[in-house]
Amino acid sequence: MAKAKIKKIKITLVKSTISSKKNQLANVEALGLRKIGSSNELTDNIQIRGMIKKVSHLVTVEEI
Fold first, then answer.
1. Which of 5, 37, 43, 61 has the smallest number of CB atoms closer than 10 Å to its CB?
2. Is the distance from CB of 5 to CB of 29 less than 8 angstroms?
3. Residue 2's pLDDT is what?
4. 8 vs 23, 28, 29, CA distance in Å?
5. What is the mean pLDDT of each run of 10 residues along the chain (64 residues)?
6. Distance between CA 8 and CA 25 in Å, rounded?
7. What is the pLDDT at residue 28?
8. For domain 8-63, which architecture applies?
């Protein structure tokens, strides 16, 4: 019986958060992103996808 592979995604901050709303800034920080160009690998689940949707104009997403 094969084990299911856990899907991961790589999220990269590509735009500044200076003029963003408070909830968008909080989502970016919760995703583990600080500076432009910083990236983080997270498991792909519903909660993370929802956070990405709120800040989709600031980040890029790659499936690993």
1. 5
2. no
3. 64
4. 24, 17, 18
5. 82 96 96 96 95 96 93
6. 22
7. 96
8. 2-Layer Sandwich (3.30)
Predicted structure pTM score? 0.86
Q: What percent of the chain has pLDDT over 70?
A: 97
Taking the C-alpha atoms of residue 39 and residue 41, their distance in angstroms, rounded to an integer, is: 7
Domain boundaries, the chain: 8-63
Exposure string for 28-51, b = 16+ CB within 10 A, e = fewer: beebebeeeeeeeebeeeeebeeb
- For the chain, give the number of residues: 64
CA angle, corner 23, sides to 48 and 58, nearest 5? 65
| Phi, psi angle pair for 57, to nearest 5° | -80, -10
Q: Residue holding tokens 């600031």?
A: 58
